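Summarise what follows for lecture notes:
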Amino acid sequence: MQTTNIPQQILKKHFGFEQFRPLQEEIIQGILQAKDTLVLMPTGGGKSICFQVPALLLPHLTLVVSPLIALMKDQVDALKANGISAAYLNSSMDEASQYDLLEQIKNERVKLLYVSPEKLLTLIPFFSSQVTISLIAIDEAHCISAWGHDFRPEYTRLKQLKEVWPQVPIIALTATADKITRKDILHQLSLQNPEVFIASFDRPNLSLTVRFGVKKKKKMEEIISFIHARAKESGIIYCLSRKATEEMAADLQAYGISADYYHAGMSAEERSRVQEEFINDKTKVICATIAFGMGIDKSNVRFVIHNSLPKNMEGYYQEIGRAGRDGLPSDTLLYYSLGDVIMLRNFIEESGQKELNLEKLNRMQQYAEAPICRRKILLAYFGETLSDDCHNCDVCKQPKKLFDGTELVQKALSALHRTNQSVGTNMLIDIIRGSHRKEIIESQFHLLKTYGVGKDKSFFEWQQLILQMINLGLLEIAYDESNSLKITDFGNQILYGRQRIQLVQPEITNDFTGKTKTYQKTYTEQDQEELLFEKLRASRRVLAEKENVPAYIIFSDATLKEIVSKKPQSLAEFIHVNGMGEHKVKKYGNTLLKELKSWQKEAYIKVPKADTYKETLALLQQGFSVEEIAETRQIQATTIYSHVAHLYQTKQLASLDSYITTQEIELVKKAKQETGESKQLAPIYLFLKEEVPYHIIRLCLSYLEREEAVELN
């Protein structure tokens, strides 16, 4: 198959993008050569394009295996919005709808079919006997591996696909998979000599912030402040338990924030309602367990907050990846405490794959406590090196200050030693700070020589210092002894003065919003552009409600921002906006132009008038037909034909071959000679007995005039 430049034409025509992102084009070329492929690409990195573009180039059906109904619906709605024939097949459909769809598939009226693994496996006899398959795409492929963070038993049966269709290329895609998971995916799917593509996991548009040991009341105040700083934006708050999601949502609602909760204990109908209202911007903030998110393709999530420490880096990366999928600046905020670590360790002790999961938790904890650029640690986990600091995480923005912490460490270790190493973190801090709580008096810890030696520091500061001591290997937690602290050999080296130790200066908490800082334009310009962005968002909302699809499927925020920046003055100029394919220009271009003109009038902004001939030329060059241009620009086709004649006559258009025939040119040439007319169309029209349309006569006259000019020269 000749594919030179064709994938890029498809990308522009249907998806509205001028260029592929890194690796996308190589992946597509491999698929068009029938190669099995594994793709690791971060959330929002453009995985779907890797199989959607080849699906439009291959002759027959592409099957897309997807784990969640909501994800299927979003993807199909987005494809249809781009003028592509796509459908989904799952258990939510009634029998009649399923039968009708299968008939359409048999008649090759569908290019991409999204299907759950269970449904696909039951329909293998139908597909193998009555449908020709060109490509199979398996999304969220980490679900097939028991080593992955979201293992699903039904996925393991997908190994049958290679047995049934040995010659059909399979592309497996995932946003998060470590080396062992990647190896298992290849094995489970029986991929043959697969090409493996690992895209950069760097999402520089996401800010990364971690907050340790913030008390519940203070944390709630910070979260409310954080959300109020983003009053018009959508976000997700991940909580460790179902109860916590409900409490968080109730607290936010009490402060007038549009919030709801989501967890696996709710009915399917309730979960679906919450998800739909969030997708359609009716609910701004979702408080959820990790059950929420895989099926969300919402591109304009602007922040993700973790109310507690995630259990591994894969899950954390996937969850924060739900913010800023459109590439615009977005914020992530992680709260955690030692209590989170202890609780998660207890869960892991009772689960399978204990050693692996404990190691994954340790890596998560190391990230949260890092004194160096967090993005470097995050990317290193996925095997990627970042040479420079990111300047978009809390550590880079406020570098950690080191000091000689030897004396403080000795105070803490000495106090712990005098308790016979029988207390946990909170009790040790209370002893050091000289607390009069009942348990301390009863245990006679108030009589220790080290009682109250650290009263000059707050409880919060000591929490941070002791956590550092654990991370540095001075202390360890005896989880089997009621989480009591134990001094390590290294700790004894410090305690007895054989070594000194550097610590990070503890944070002193102040007001916190975590708002991403961006370049600020002059107040007037910024204010005017904000007005335009809101006008476009409101218009998008109306279109979305009319078509019953999420707003971001009509246009992403990134597309609207680019429209605000470029301010197109004609339909032809919209072609150069990322995310505006031909279908969307035809369908929505005039609506956007009206909003722009309305804004310009309100903002008293003068802009150059669009050149109507150039606009027609630009649309012709993009492959629009005369009729499509007329419909899109909402003017008569005869006017567009007059533009074509003018463009040819002024040598801006090279040929009229697709509009007029040699026979028509000869007829008009003869009529012109007989009537003596070269400008008026009516005499020629009557001479030809009204058999040649006016627009054809106009084009033929333009052709003849240019030919005569050539002869004279």
Q: What stands out?
A: The first strand starts at residue 37 and ends at 40. The two ends are 45 Å apart (CA to CA). Residues 311 and 344 are 7 Å apart (CA to CA).
